[in-house]
């Protein structure tokens, strides 16, 4: 199998393998729309971020990394669970969660997905089975737990988690992977390897750029791909999700990509000089949307005027999302104590008496926990 690393991608030059032949117009339009919707959303939020200082939470933008969330959005079922990390807007939209609830959350309004109290990197939308979080790798074990619950109940649901390559530097990644492999859990791990953790390159943090190889040692099926090809991303994700759904066990997909914007916030962080200018230029020339548009033009599909209509429709949705956020009320005084801490634990209180029946006796009946 061909080895993919960030260095090998640079060496092989501009990507030329994007194939759209034989794909339905519905799929091509869906991929294009998903990528452009995320891009326009992020660009608009960047422009509005400082205007009137209405967005106060840190935002990790995702320009350049649109292909994977766009592909994922066409494959997820409503009842699947998707977990994500700090760079979460693409995953939020992929789970079909409403743009207005995202914008209002960033604006700190009551109509935000979490009533304006979570902000960008902690946003969740339980009604859409979507959960993100700023604790790096925290979502990985939660996703494994959901996958365990689905398997235990005999559901054919899949739990997925999207994260960056630095999440694999936490022990919990390997612990969850090991458990998922042993139990053949319906779990799909989506790693967007964008080479950096904040301002630090992967080679300065990990022994080698060979994550998939290390994951294979855990008996987990892996897919390693150039991550700015939406069609390849779609096909790999489809195969992995189906494999997990049918009981094959967990999958790990590593998508090689690059974030064009700063690690956090709308302003550039290139003044830190943590990444070479020619590297940034290389990845700009491999912009997933530009690569896709080129192939569409070459094949004479989804022409300029049709694409402009899609963009206009998206821009209208974005305008409405801003209006919704700006016209929504700020939260009233919030009791943070009650929000973040509670001495009550109804689940434990219901079940602990059951599991402490008598002294240890291996013949005693096993307490059966009711689902909560
Ligand atoms: C447990 C923990 N440690 C450190 C951080 C600080 N932190 C926030 S984002 C980030 C970089 C993450 O890099 P990666 O996982 O590759 O995702 P990317 O930002 O590149 O998308 C770090 C170290 C954190 N949020 N949580
Ligand atoms: Mg990274």
Structure described in brief:
The chain has helices at residues 6-11, 25-48, 67-73, 89-94, 99-106, 138-153, 171-183, 211-216, 230-245, 277-284, 288-299, 304-326, 336-340, 346-355, and strands at 81-84, 124-125, 130-132, 159-164, 187-193, 196-197, 200-201, 221-226, 251-256.
Give the distance, in angstroms, between the N- and C-terminal Cα atoms: 45 Å
Q: What is the CATH class designation?
A: Alpha Beta
Radius of gyration: 22 Å
Describe the largest sheet.
7 strands, mixed
CATH architecture: 3-Layer(aba) Sandwich
What fold name stands as the CATH topology? Answer: Rossmann fold
Kindly estimate the percentage of residues that lie in beta strands according to DSSP. 5-15%
The number of helical elements comes to 14
Q: What is the mean predicted local confidence, pLDDT?
A: 94
Order of SSEs: HHHEHHEEHEHEEEHEHEHHHHH
Helix content: 40-55%
State the total count of DSSP E strands: 9
What is the spatial order of strands in the main beta sheet? 2-3-1-4-5-9-8
User: Low-confidence parts lasting 5 or more residues at pLDDT below 50?
Assistant: none
Class from secondary-structure proportions: alpha/beta
Number of domains: 1
Outline type: globular
- Bound chemical compounds: thiamine diphosphate, magnesium ion
Per CATH, the superfamily is: Thiamin diphosphate (ThDP)-binding fold, Pyr/PP domains
Please give a structural write-up.
With 372 residues, the chain is α/β, with parallel strands linked by helices. It has one domain (6-346): Rossmann fold. It has helices spanning 6-11, 25-48, 67-73, 89-94, 99-106, 138-153, 171-183, 211-216, 230-245, 277-284, 288-299, 304-326, 336-340, 346-355, and strands at 81-84, 124-125, 130-132, 159-164, 187-193, 196-197, 200-201, 221-226, 251-256. The strands form 2 sheets. It has a 7-stranded mixed beta sheet, sandwiched between helices. Strands 6-7 form a two-stranded antiparallel ribbon. The longest helix is centred in the N-terminal third of the chain and has 24 residues, at 25-48. The structure holds thiamine diphosphate (TPP) and magnesium ion. The site of thiamine diphosphate has 15 residues, from strand 4 and strand 6.
């Amino acid at each position: 199998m061909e080895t993919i690393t960030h260095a090998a991608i640079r060496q092989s030059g501009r990507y030329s393998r994007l194939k759209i032949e034989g794909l339905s117009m519905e799929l091509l339009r869906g991929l294009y729309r998903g990528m452009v919707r995320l891009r326009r959303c992020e660009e608009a939020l960047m422009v509005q971020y400082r205007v009137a200082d209405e967005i106060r939470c840190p935002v990790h933008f995702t320009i350049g990394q649109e292909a994977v969330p766009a592909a994922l959005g066409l494959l997820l079922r409503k009842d699947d669970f998707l977990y994500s990390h700090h760079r979460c807007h693409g995953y939020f939209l992929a789970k079909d969660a409403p743009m207005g609830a995202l914008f209002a959350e960033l604006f700190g309004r009551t109509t935000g997905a979490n009533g304006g109290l979570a902000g960008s990197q902690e946003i969740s939308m339980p009604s859409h089975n979507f959960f993100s979080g700023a604790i790096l790798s925290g979502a990985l074990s939660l996703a494994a737990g959901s996958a365990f619950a689905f398997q235990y109940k005999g559901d054919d649901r899949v739990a997925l988690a999207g994260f960056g390559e630095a999440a694999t530097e936490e022990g919990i990644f390997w612990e969850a992977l090991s458990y998922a492999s042993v139990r053949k859990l319906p779990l799909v791990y989506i790693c967007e390897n964008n080479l950096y953790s904040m301002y630090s390159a992967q080679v300065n943090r990990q022994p080698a750029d060979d994550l998939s190889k290390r994951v294979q040692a855990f008996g987990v099926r892996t897919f390693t791909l150039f991550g700015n090809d939406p069609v390849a991303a779609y096909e790999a994700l489809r195969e992995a999700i189906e494999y997990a759904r049918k009981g094959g066990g967990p999958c790990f997909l590593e998508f090689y990509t690059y974030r064009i914007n700063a690690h956090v916030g709308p302003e550039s962080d290139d003044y830190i000089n943590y990444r070479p200018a020619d590297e940034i230029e290389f990845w700009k020339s491999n912009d997933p949307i530009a690569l896709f548009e080129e192939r569409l033009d070459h094949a004479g599909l989804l022409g300029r005027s049709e694409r402009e209509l899609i963009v206009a429709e998206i821009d209208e949705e974005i305008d409405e999302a801003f209006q919704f956020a700006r016209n929504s009320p700020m939260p009233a005084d919030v009791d943070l104590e009650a929000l973040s801490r509670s001495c009550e634990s109804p689940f434990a209180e219901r079940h602990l008496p059951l599991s402490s029946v008598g002294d240890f006796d291996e013949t005693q009946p096993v307490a059966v926990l009711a689902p909560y």
